[in-house]
């Protein structure tokens, strides 16, 4: 990309710099004419689209190498590493059943099933056996492994059938004897188990091989919304009637979605959920991974193996076993779950031809390719055109883009058009007019796409049960809620919700489905606004404004930005020089922004920290940096800045020590002393104070000192409640930490934290809270054992 940008003539760059949306067809034509005869451009396109030079194609030699390493680790008893290498081998193993490689994927699945079995992952082991028999229905070892997995799951009837099939498929006398011995053991196990209790045949659950992340909920959107337009914000969504808090107002599947590059090895490329131990690779490339055959098929993976009944069963197999084999293959293939005639777009299908441009180009460019192909498929068109892309009705910020962004977008649009044409066979005319539509689409994605975030509960130092029984041991427990950005998607209706730094709705995701829920009462006709990222309490006013202007090209005029609020007054403020004064002292930048909003004050919020603003709310009142807004006392800002900066160095060192899990005594002591200095320098509600308290809580927890950990955690939450509100989701995330510490100590106040936590999660996630935060249910169960 940099080389291509460097060769563009300055004259053409000048035209691009001054261009507006109506000029894009012309600028695309000019740039295309310049690139087409250029050897460098031809080389770039060839490297991106040539399957012979691609790095993401299937490769037998690589698969065999990973398989051999897996075998070595399995032989040494390191089943976890064996599992990892077998999974890598499957990524590169061809799935087509032909010639010399016909058994490669099958044997790897069987070997991985053995590792999973050894690790106690029985359901996963059974699923791998299912995949093996789908690929090679006459492979005796696959049926044998399936029988052992079913026996361990006490699915004895299936286990007996599996072993009987294996016996009929096996050709060697030694193999038949081994199967016979195992079958006798299973029969004995069944007999013993039947005497103790009735067995449960888990295999009868036909969802065993399907995706477990399908979104289902009894809660439906009953509320009607309307799209409105305002002079300050343009299009937006508003309520037609009064809406109670915690109401689900919108749900939507993505028009197009892409998994981010850093998540490729750990998250499903279709549903975006965490991959299980028995992940399923794409049948045609070595990049995409899925949580199940169901997701693999829905993404566009091609059915592999002999599931189309073109396999031959030995004549020795009796009819009842032949029916069992057919039934097993039909249930466990996973592809039967995707109706080939259904109106479904296979989003990975056009990327899976062996070329590696989908793995190399930026995610938003690949997302644009998916959106373009989907729009063409949906309309039944064979050629691209303006009506194909503009149907999304999304806004763009092309006119506000810098020369660098405009040039980059033009080049990526041209490259994407070539990639789609050459690797997919898309009849997309390579003209300035058609490529200009890609430019607009990419610009639309930049400002309208949503980041898909998955929530994850993480035990930082040990399991909950262990910490309760050994609360004073090193590394007892700190549980955290992590927000992991896993994907990027286009939600046409969801993009109509405008931004507010003090939102009244909350957006969240289950798998790839978007849900939007109110977090407060919304009267009829009032706009429904969510946060595009920045929020009051998270950043100060000037930072929020800059982030939104850089990313979305607008200057925010929401209530949180147009009115002076407590959070913006204190988030980066210094404390008053008078010991007992809670007044806020602003630096020059924040004083300037406060002066601009002096006539728009939230009086009830700021009375304790800025009484002078309330007493003189006229435009002539001067907000001076360094002077307390409560009592007027002067604070030496230069000295305060220097003191705070020096103290924060030791807090930062402690933070790094926590991440490396090596908290030395002197590091903790220095940080604690720095906290006392910060308390005398920064305002009591300064966000740096909350972060310092939180770091000390984590540090004390890491060394098993849970009482001071609890005290610092409470102090951090108290500050955050001032910056946000007591029922904000940020407070909920912090309460997870506090509740886990209280539970480890057996502290009676844990139920107060859990109840507040439950209330917040119900407000933000409604009936989905238990699914998004299963850890909350674990906390409740453990607390109920104590009280």
UniProtKB/TrEMBL annotation:
Q: Where is the SET domain?
A: 223-533
Task: For this UniProt record, give its keywords in alphabetical order, as a comma-separated list.
Answer: TPR repeat
Entry keyword annotation includes DNA damage: no
Specify the protein name.
Answer: SET and MYND domain-containing protein 4 isoform X2
Outline the TPR repeats, range by range.
63-96
| Gene3D superfamilies, per the entry | SET domain (2.170.270.10), Tetratricopeptide repeat domain (1.25.40.10)
Q: Which Pfam families match?
A: SET (PF00856), TPR_8 (PF13181)
Q: Its gene?
A: LOC104612938
> Has UniProt tagged this entry with the keyword Protease?
no
Q: Report which superkingdom the organism of origin falls in.
A: Eukaryota
């Amino acid at each position: 990309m940099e080389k291509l940008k460097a060769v563009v003539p300055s004259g053409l760059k000048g035209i691009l710099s001054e261009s507006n949306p109506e000029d894009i067809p012309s600028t695309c034509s000019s740039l295309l004419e310049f690139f087409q005869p250029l050897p460098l451009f031809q080389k770039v396109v060839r490297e991106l689209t040539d399957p012979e030079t691609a790095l993401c194609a299937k490769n037998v030699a690589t698969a065999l190498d990973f398989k051999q390493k897996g075998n070595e680790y399995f032989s040494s008893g390191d089943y976890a590493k064996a599992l990892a290498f077998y999974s890598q081998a499957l990524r590169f193993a061809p799935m087509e059943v032909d010639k010399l490689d016909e058994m490669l994927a099958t044997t790897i699945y069987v070997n991985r099933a053995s590792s999973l079995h050894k690790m106690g992952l029985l359901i996963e082991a059974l699923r791998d056996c299912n995949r093996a028999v789908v690929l090679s229905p006459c492979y005796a070892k696959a049926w044998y492994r399936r029988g052992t997995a079913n026996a361990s799951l006490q699915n004895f009837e299936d286990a007996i059938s599996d072993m009987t099939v294996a016996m009929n498929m096996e050709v060697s006398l030694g193999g038949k004897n081994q199967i016979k011995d195992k079958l006798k053991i299973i029969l004995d196990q069944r007999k013993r188990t039947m005497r103790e209790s009735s067995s449960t045949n888990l295999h009868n659950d036909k969802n065993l091989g399907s995706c477990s992340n399908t979104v289902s909920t009894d809660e439906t959107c009953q509320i009607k919304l309307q799209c409105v337009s305002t002079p300050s914000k343009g299009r937006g969504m508003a309520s037609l009637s009064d809406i109670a808090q915690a109401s689900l107002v919108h749900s939507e599947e993505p028009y197009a979605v892409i998994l981010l590059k850093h998540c490729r090895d750990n998250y499903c490329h279709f549903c975006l959920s965490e991959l299980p131990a028995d992940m399923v690779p794409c049948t045609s490339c070595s990049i995409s991974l899925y949580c199940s055959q169901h997701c693999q098929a829905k993404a566009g993976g091609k059915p592999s193996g002999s599931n189309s009944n073109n396999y031959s069963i030995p004549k020795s197999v009796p009819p009842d076993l032949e029916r069992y084999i057919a039934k097993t293959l039909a249930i466990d293939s996973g592809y039967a779950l995707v109706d080939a005639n259904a109106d479904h777009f296979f989003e990975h299908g056009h990327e899976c031809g062996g070329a590696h441009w989908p793995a190399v180009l930026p995610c938003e460019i690949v997302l644009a390719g998916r959106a373009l192909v989907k729009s063409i498929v949906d309309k039944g068109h064979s050629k691209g055109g303006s009506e194909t892309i503009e149907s999304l009705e999304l806004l763009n910020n092309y006119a506000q883009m810098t020369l660098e962004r405009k040039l980059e977008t033009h080049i990526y649009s041209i490259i994407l058009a070539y990639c789609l044409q050459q690797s997919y066979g898309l009849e997309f005319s390579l003209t300035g007019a058609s490529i200009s539509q890609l430019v607009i689409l990419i610009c639309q994605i930049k400002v309208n796409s949503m980041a898909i975030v998955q929530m994850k509960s993480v035990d930082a130092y040990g399991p909950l049960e262990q910490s309760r029984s050994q609360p004073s041991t090193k590394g007892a427990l700190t549980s955290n809620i992590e927000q992991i950005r896993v994907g990027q998607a286009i939600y046409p209706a969801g993009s109509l919700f405008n931004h507010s730094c003090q939102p009244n709705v909350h957006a969240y995701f289950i798998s790839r489905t978007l849900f939007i829920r109110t977090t407060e009462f919304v009267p009829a006709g009032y706009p429904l606004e969510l946060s595009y990222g920045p929020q009051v309490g998270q950043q100060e006013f000037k930072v929020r404004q800059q982030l939104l202007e850089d990313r979305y090209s607008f200057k925010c005029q929401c209530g949180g930005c147009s009115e002076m609020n407590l959070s913006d007054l204190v988030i980066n403020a210094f404390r008053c020089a008078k010991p007992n004064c809670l007044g806020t002292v602003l630096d020059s930048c924040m004083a300037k922004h406060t002066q601009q909003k002096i006539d728009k004050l939230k009086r009830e919020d700021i009375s304790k920290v800025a009484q002078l603003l309330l007493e003189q709310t006229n435009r002539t009142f001067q907000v001076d940096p360094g002077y307390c807004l409560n009592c007027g006392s002067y604070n030496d800002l230069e000295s305060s800045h220097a003191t705070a900066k020096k103290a924060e160095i030791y807090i930062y060192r402690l933070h790094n020590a926590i991440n490396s899990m090596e908290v030395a005594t002197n590091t903790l002591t220095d940080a604690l002393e720095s906290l006392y200095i910060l308390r005398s320098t920064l305002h009591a509600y300064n966000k740096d104070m909350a972060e310092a308290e939180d770091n000390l809580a984590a540090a004390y927890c890491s060394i098993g000192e849970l009482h001071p950990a609890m005290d610092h955690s409470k102090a951090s939450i108290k500050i955050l409640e001032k910056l946000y509100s007591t029922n904000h989701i940020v407070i909920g995330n912090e309460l997870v930490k506090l509740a886990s510490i209280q539970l480890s100590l057996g502290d009676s106040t844990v139920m107060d934290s859990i109840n507040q936590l439950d209330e917040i999660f119900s407000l933000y996630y409604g009936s989905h809270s238990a699914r998004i935060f299963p850890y909350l249910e674990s906390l409740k169960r453990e607390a109920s054992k104590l009280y």
